[in-house]
Amino acid sequence: MSTEAVQRAFDELAPDYDEDFTGSRIGRLQRAAFWRLLGAPFGEGDHVLDLGCGTGEDAVRLARLGCSVDGIDVSPGMIEAARARAEAEGLAESLSFRALPIERVADLAPERYEGVISNFGPVNCVEDLAPVARTLGERVRPGGVVALCVMSRFCLWETLFYPLTLQLHKAFRRFSGEYAESRVGGDESFRVYYPSVRLIVETFAPEFAFERAPGIGVFLPPSYLEPFAQRFPGLVETLAGVDRVVGGWPVFRSVADHRLVLLRRRAA
Fold first, then answer.
1. pLDDT truncated to tens, each residue of the chain (268 aa)?
2. Which among 28, 20, 21 has a CA at the least distance from the CA of 240?
3. 4-265 CATH choice from 3.40.50.150, 3.30.70.2520, 3.40.50.20, 3.30.43.10
4. What stretch of H or E contains 103?
5. In this structure, are residues 165 and 171 in contact, taking their beta carbons and an 8 Å threshold?
C-alpha cells in the first residue's frame, strides 16, 4: 500500500490534531512519560532528526533545549502546522520541516545527527524498517540515541475495552504482528504494522545496540478514551502515577499501549 493513503488520512487530522491529542489530558500525560523515560540525551548544539514529527510539539521542545531539528512527516498538513508552530514560538531558525515519508528518509541531505526520535507510532505506518535502519546507521554519530515510540503488539486497555463495545476485530487486531487496516478521522483506510521489540532490535542491528523498551500506557488509557479522562481526571492522574512505577517492569511493559524502544549507535 502506498504512503498516499496515510498522507490523506493525516492531512485530514492535521487541523484538529493539537486540540484532539496534543493538548488532551491523555496526550499530555503520554508525552510527559515519553520525555521522562527518554531522559536527557540531547542538549545545546545537538542536531536531532524527528521522524513523523506531526505538528512539531517534540521538535519545539528540543529547540528550546538548544538543539537544531530536522522534522519529516508524510502529511503536508502536519508540516504546515509544524512550521506555523515554529514561527509562533520564535524558533524557526532552529527547526526545519519537510513533507517526506519515513520510508524516504535517505532523500534528506546527508546530515549527521546526535540522535533520532519518533513519537507515538509513525514507524508503525512503515512496512519495512530495514532501509530506514540502514540510513540511520549512516547518519547517526557513534553514541547517538534512537528513540522509537511504537504501538505495541498487545495493549491491555484495547483488549478489554473493545469487546465491551462489540468491536472484537479491534480487540485482537495487533496480535498477528503483521498489519491491521486502520482509519483515523474519515473514511481513508491505511495499514498499521505492529512489529515486536525483538524484530525492531534485530532490524537495527548491528549498527545499534538495544538499551531498553519501557511501556507507555500500561494503566493510563489510550488517547481514544479521552472522554473517560475528562470525566475522571483524578483517576487518570493516579493511573499515570502507577505507570511511572511499573512501566519498566517485565510483563507490565509488555501490555502497554506503546513501547519506547531505545537504541544506541555503536562505535564505528
1. 468 989 999 999 999 999 999 999 999 999 999 999 999 999 999 999 999 999 999 999 999 999 999 999 999 999 999 999 999 999 999 999 999 999 999 999 999 999 999 999 999 999 999 999 999 999 999 999 999 999 999 999 999 988 888 787 777 777 766 677 776 656 668 899 999 999 999 999 999 999 999 999 999 999 999 999 999 999 999 999 999 999 999 999 999 999 999 999 999 7
2. 28
3. 3.40.50.150
4. none
5. no
Q: What is the pTM of this model?
A: 0.95
Amino acid at 217: G
Residue reference for cell 473514511: 187
For residue 130, give the nearest of 35, 219, 202, 33 by alpha carbon.
202
Estimate the share of the chain in helix, then strand, then coil, as percent rounded to the nearest 5: 45, 20, 30
User: 165: which DSSP letter?
Assistant: T
